[in-house]
Write a structure and sequence with these properties.
The structure holds two protein chains of two kinds. Chain A is mainly β. Chain A contains no helices and eleven strands. Chain B is an all-beta fold. Classes of the chains: A mainly beta, B mainly beta. Chains A and B meet through strand 4, strand 5 and strand 10 of A and strand 4, strand 5 and strand 10 of B.
Chain lengths: 115, 112
Amino acid sequence: NAGVMQNPRHLVRRRGQEARLRCSPMKGHSHVYWYRQLPEEGLKFMVYLQKENIIDESGMPKERFSAEFPKEGPSILRIQQVVRGDSAAYFCASSPYDGSNTEAFFGQGTRLTVV
Amino acid sequence: ILNVEQSPQSLHVQEGDSTNFTCSFPSSNFYALHWYRWETAKSPEALFVMTLNGDEKKKGRISATLNTKEGYSYLYIKGSQPEDSATYLCAFLNTNAGKSTFGDGTTLTVKP
């Protein structure tokens, strides 16, 4: 059973371009979480999704950021018109249900650098 | 906004020392507390899932306790080894959300 897969591992974008980060959860997991780690900071929650539904996006910046978890395929975190402040490590985690009594399994992250 | 605080921020110990650090979280609407171990260049891995007041969990030399009434959890490492060097994260879940709120972590460095 493969773990949580994130790609790409490293992504470089110029200011104003779009960044697409992909997360394939573990087999059988229908809950996906995205976290961001800014330089010198801890993990900060961004968004929680179930298949085809956004459950909680309270940590997501209001503009330029969007996330989806379609019925088929990976979850996508999309950042439009990237700026230097978007440079961070973005981690995805998945769990089989709402995560209360089971730990989340993390991917290895995508490190986004905006130049 | 839920405040989850970990202390100390960093810790340097000698091989063989025992150590402990703290995670503080809101004492109301508690649902679960998770501890994760995060090694450099890897992804966080779960150590413990704690749900009941008074819970004590153990995995090898690492153990954790939980006090939900006062809102804290301790992580203990007995006889630290260099391979224990990592950042230890706690994550709090309350009854109203399926997401975890993470503390900023305690970074442990064990010197040989």
